[in-house]
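Hi V.,

You were right to ask for the full record rather than a summary. Here it is.
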Amino acid sequence: MKKSSPRSNRVCRVCGANTRELFKAKVRKRYDGTFDVCPSCGFLQAREPVWLEEAYEESINQSDTGLLARNIYCAQLASTLLYFLWGPGTTCLDYGGGYGVLVRLLRDIGFDCFWQDPMTSNLFARGHEIGADQRVNVVTAFECFEHFADPGNEISGIAGIAPNILFSTILLPDPPPRPEEWWYYGLDHGQHISFYSLRSLEIIARRCGLHFVSNNSAYHLFSSRRVHPAVFRFLVAASSRGLAGYVRRRMSSRTEADMNLHLGKGEVR
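Predicted structure:
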């Protein structure tokens, strides 16, 4: 996952409006963090996250005990949406792909999926790193947006790789909870510094020239063509109720072909 430097500390990094201080909180048990909210778009940001270098000494924080379960679920979700919205031949990139678990799972299902994450070692998807100028149909970015120090520029860069971005980030409740009331602030590890409202995501999508749809909770889509909200929400909900199994049965796994590639017995498909 790419780190970037935040813009002006008291200006909203999404819409440019002046922010106001919402609360102060202890970050990583030793830093005094100030968090500002935008009255215009509802975006919440860490004002001066001076702790970021320390926070990323280990890119996967120890408190993320749900990493594997989340990747298994995201493979079900992503495969369902990739298949029904763009088709079985869809190419994809997992942005901020961590150890490469999701890429491996999607390739095992049959999708031509690639990996990118300069902050983490690729353990499970070696040989499937995306090329410097490579483009794909869809970028997946699960649990990445809350890490972005400059969301507008970071997401604009992702949109340059693919015209569709399937992502997850938990929406900021309204009104925003106090620091001790919401685990998603991630104050123990300090990697979460950006928190989004629906309005702020709509603004980002519009500036990228994309449509926006959400399940109004944690899963969202920026897309080049409009996707009906009811269709998106149905696919998200049904992915874990058997629809992902249907997709797997209709696809041809790349597991063996990838093994042969590493053994020098095949070509990249």
